[in-house]
Amino acid sequence: MFSYSKCKVLECTHFAISDFDENGNLIESGKFCYAHTPNKEELQQKMYTYIENHDKIIGLNASGHTFKNINLSHKRFYGCNFSQCFFIGLQTNGIRSRISNFDFSVFSDCNLLESNMQFTSFAGSKFSHVLFTGSDMIQNNFCGLTSFQSSFDDSDLYSSYFINAKLIDTSFRNCNIKETVFYEITQQNVSFRQSNTNAAIFDKRGSALFTGLEELNVPRGETKGPTS
Q: Which of 108, 44, 117, 105 is nearest to 77 (CA)?
């Protein structure tokens, strides 16, 4: 996992992001958070170079960075922190992530096709024109997600969480959503066509109808735990 050392600026409560030595090697503990980094552009380039030169990346803390038009295809991230990052124009296939953090990040105009992500968090993130088509997104956290004109089609979302998500023009066609939790979502023009909605969890009360979906896509809630 990434280092939890604090930023060296006395009044700052944020964690220090990763830094690199003169040979481009990852330093376990950096000195400053992104906001207090003296030369942001230089560090950004070092981070791009490090990612480009490594297929397996462990414990990278890139919180606050912007990743624009970078190819992350087939990169493997383990225990990394990409919270509050901006991802713009990514054209990526087969990215792999385990126990990584993308909380409160923004993804815009990104293709992340055939991703393989487990135990990864996107809590509070925003997706705009993002494609995860054909991905394995198992036991991930999408709570508080805002998704606009995006697609999870043909993906395995087993036992993931979309609690309090806001889904607009977003598609879950032909997905495995067994044990996937959609409590209290706000949705507009969302399709679950050909997905196993009867195995998903839409309502804590186990109600038969989920308001707002097309007639053919109406899922049936599955009662979990106490019903009182």
A: 117
What are 73-130's pLDDT values in tens digits? 999 999 999 999 999 999 999 999 999 999 999 999 999 999 999 999 999 999 999 9
Q: What is the pTM of this model?
A: 0.86
Structure tokens at 47: 């981070």
Q: What are phi and psi of 166, to 5 degrees?
A: -110, 110
The whole-chain average pLDDT of the chain stands at 88
For residue 207, what pLDDT is reported?
38
Contacts 24+ apart (CB under 8 A), 182-185: none
Q: Which residue has the tokens 């992001």?
A: 17
* CA-angle at 43, arms to 90 and 93, nearest 5°: 20
